[in-house]
Structures are given as structure tokens and as C-alpha cells.
């Protein structure tokens, strides 16, 4: 590993990260509007055919209220978008940094259990992992039959099994066309055998 000046670092901005929260807002409003519309239509239809006029209770009478889970899901997405975007703005760091201490940045760039632990248990909005604790820096492709899991930089830690619970999954999608530069930055601090390339660089057109 090379010895570097304390002031030396590499910073990679991610201007597209706000798209994540914009999508959450759109999905949230969509499910909220859709759910309320379906509930209202169901209630009005039941009322028009006299479902609520009969003395006995029936399943049809409660259908509009059962459908509340649809707008409820929309509300949960909106709340999540507001909280996540607020934390990102509070972090005031739109990018990821590689310096002599390690890899650091807002948790907006992470996915998985480690991100949840930092956010929910540590109540923090930043992540930081020091070079001496890193076992491997792995460039991972999309996973799943339909590519459900996006491509990651998987940072595994020494003395662990390298599972989801004790690895950092940094989303690659925010650093398109910068991957060669990122790998060069990592090579300044990690040995070559610690860097595992399981995928080609992501292209913006993908």
C-alpha cells in the first residue's frame, strides 16, 4: 500500500442521486391518488346499488375500507422520500470520497443491512469504512433473474464472512463513466489482489 500525503483525496460527485427521491415522490403520489380513487369508486358503487341500505352486514360493505392499504402504501413512500431527501440535504455532501482514512459519503449511496444499521441504530447520515478494515473491494454486476439487484461496489470487511449484514453495498449507478477513476483511487490504498472485478464498467446507456 502506498503512503500518501494527508491532503490527498479523490472525490466523485453524484448529481443524479436526487432522481431516487423524485421517483419515490412520484410513486407515492401515484399510489395515494390511485388508492383514494379506487376506494371512492368502490364506496359510491356500493351506495348506488344499495349495499349500505340492507340491515345485515356483508363483505361488500367493507371492501372500500379494506382497500385503504393502497393509499397507505403511497403515504409510506412519500414519508420515506421526505425523510431520505432531508437526510441527504443535511449531509451536504453530494459524492463519495476516497482519502487516506478510507471510503466515506452519505448513506444515500448505500443499500442493504449496513445502511439500515447506520441510519436506524447509529442515527447517522454518513458512512465511513477505514482501509485497514477492508478485505476486498468488489465490482459486482446486476443480480437476479431479472436484474432486480442493481450493480454495486461491495466492500467486505476483514474477519467477517462477507455476507450482506457485514458488507457495504455502494450503488454504482450514481458513478457512471467514472469507474476507471474510482478503481484507480482504490488502488492507491488497497493491494491489487484485494480488488475483484466481477463486471465490466456500467455504461450510461444501460
Write a concise keyword list for the protein shown above:
5 helices, 206 residues, 4-stranded antiparallel beta sheet, alpha+beta, 5-stranded mixed beta sheet, elongated
Question: Can you give a write-up of this model?
Answer:
β2 and β3 form a beta hairpin. The protein is built from five helices and nine strands. It is an alpha+beta fold and 206 residues long. A five-stranded mixed beta sheet has the order 4-8-7-6-9, covered by helices on one side. A four-stranded antiparallel beta sheet has the order 1-2-3-5.
Report strand order across the widest sheet: 4-8-7-6-9
**What proportion of the residues form beta strands (DSSP E)?**
15-25%
Strand count, sense and closure of the main sheet? 5 strands, mixed
Global outline: elongated
Average pLDDT rating: 84
- What is the helix content? 25-40%
Blueprint of the fold:
Blueprint: E1 9-13, H1 18-48, H2 59-66, H3 69-91, E2 95-99, E3 102-106, E4 110-111, H4 113-121, E5 126-130, E6 134-140, E7 152-157, E8 167-171, H5 179-187, E9 195-197
Parallel strand pairs: 6-9
Antiparallel strand pairs: 1-2, 2-3, 3-5, 4-8, 6-7, 7-8
